Amino acid sequence: MDPIIKLEKIAQYNQLKGIETQHPLISVFDNSATKALPNHTRMHFGFYAIFLKAGNCGELKYGRNNYDYDDGTMVFVSPGQVIEVNNPEDYHPTGLAILFHPDLIKGTSLAKNMSQYSFFSYESHEALHLSLKEQQIIKDLFSKLQYELSQSIDKHSKSIISNNIELLLNYCVRFYDRQFITRENINTDVLSKFENLLQDYFQSESAQDTGLPSVGYFADRLHLSANYFGDLIKKETGKSAQEHIQLKLINVAKERIFDTDKSVSQIAFELGFKYPQHFNRMFKKNTDFTPIEYRNLN
């Protein structure tokens, strides 16, 4: 197995790349002016990283999948992720990069909003692909951050730096929304497969054997990260993936309640509930009737 390099500090990454550390908690640089990372290694990141790639970027792997690289591809790494590097011998780094430690943004609005940027948990094949105009916007923001780091640190530095990073991430939210729209055919295919998986789950004995299905369960079978899958479903339908699962669950429950040979408790267990009272509460919340009331009403 390839060795894992633990990178807890920005300076450690800078050292690997042959970059001067201007600030202990953030680094912004042009990759073309740096050394290539050690080949055939895995790196455990203790900080956030944003890469804007250009041209042939070699092979970078997250989990079991290679990044879907193209000119103008953006990749996002969060603390705790492990990235695997496998490049050809004649590989030369390209593109731009921002690294920032969680300590940099403590107490800022960015720290409060970081959980909203779900693309930091997307899988490798869910990278962001930018148009030329979008690339220019991102490059301009990189330049602003580079300029700020070249200045003497003062009381305004932290807010200006964090605000620019937040602005960059907000643009990425917009660009991902555009990507969801322009990949409508792919998204429709995912929706169709999701509906079929839902149908199969409740028609088989999966629910009774493994319990209520989670968003992660369906995302895994569609070879997507839970965050990307959830965002895609929400963008396409206006409902969350969890709402879709619950709606399907209630519709199946309504059909089975008419089978008077089965008790409500038996139906609850078949649907994956450990406790019938949990089923009763969910059913009433969604229909305004208890299962028994619904059966008698119909």
Q: DSSP strand (E) fraction?
A: 5-15%
Q: What structural class do the secondary elements suggest?
A: alpha+beta
- How confident overall, as mean pLDDT? 86
Principal-axes shape call: elongated
Distance between the termini: 62 Å
Low-confidence stretches: 56-69
Rounded to an integer, what's the Rg over CA atoms?
Answer: 24 Å
Number of separate structural domains: 2
Task: Give the name of the CATH superfamily of the largest domain.
Answer: Regulatory protein AraC
Placed side by side, the strands forming the largest sheet appear as: 1-3-8-5-6
Quote the CATH topology of the largest domain.
Jelly Rolls
CATH class of the largest domain: Mainly Beta
Encode the helix/strand succession as letters. Answer: EHEEEEEEEEHEHHHHHHHHHH
Main beta sheet strand tally, sense and closure: 5 strands, mixed
State the helical fraction. Answer: 40-55%
Number of helix segments?
12
How many strand segments? 10
**Second rung of CATH, namely the architecture of the largest domain:** Sandwich
Keywords: DNA-binding, Transcription, Transcription regulation
Protein name: Helix-turn-helix domain-containing protein
InterPro entries: Homeodomain-like_sf, HTH-like, HTH_AraC, Tscrpt_reg_AraC-type_HTH
Pfam families: HTH_18 (PF12833)
